[in-house]
Amino acid sequence: MKRWVVVFALAVITLGIGAAAVGQEGVPRSTAKEIRDDFMDVDRRILAMARDWPADKYDYKLKPEMRTFGEVLVHVVSGNVYAAKAGKGENVKWDELDPKNYSDKASVVALLEKSFADSEAVLKSWPDAQFTKTVEPWLDVLEHSGEHYGLLVAYYRANGIVPPESRPKK
User: Fold this and answer.
1) β partners of residue 22
2) Which of 36, 65, 84, 90 is most buried as measured by Cβ atoms within 10 A of its Cβ?
């Protein structure tokens, strides 16, 4: 299934099909710009949630067997660390960071800020032409982060809190 999703996404991005591939000026966005923009947008959304979520609720879980809000964020960081290393051409495997090492909101937010800055720097350093050869590791990590963004929205809603992205714009 994962291979099918990657092949389909690569085809859509490469061919520039759909409204999402068109910028505000009606000019098609390149594959490189599409991946960069989407990757950084989900990072931005997750970081906004991490900063917004009440510190005393970082240990909140939807169900006992699930990760806490803070543990989900540390798990997301694991993906961005993977992307940064793989994007630099390092032979890397996905290693989970231990959430016990990040026991409060301040340490989790600092970890997110650093990992997002690091992975986005590597992403921006890729020449545009590289994206015609592969969109990995960026597409896999983008999908992973997007899935966990959706989970974090559920944490918000279960606590009667409106997620930052859903609030009225001032």
Assistant:
1) 28
2) 84
User: For 8-21, how does the pLDDT look when each residue is reduced to its tens digit (9 = 90+)?
Assistant: 444 434 344 344 44
Mean pLDDT of the chain: 88
Residue spans of the domains in the chain: they are 30-166
Separation of first and last alpha carbons in the chain: 41
Task: Give the count of beta carbons closer than 10 Å to the beta carbon of residue 145.
Answer: 25
Fold assignment, 30-166: Four Helix Bundle (Hemerythrin (Met), subunit A) (1.20.120)
Yes or no: say if 106 and 51 are a contact pair by the CB < 8 Å rule: no
Q: Report the distance separating Cα 76 and Cα 149, nearest Å.
A: 9
Which pLDDT value is given to residue 164? 96
pTM of the model: 0.83
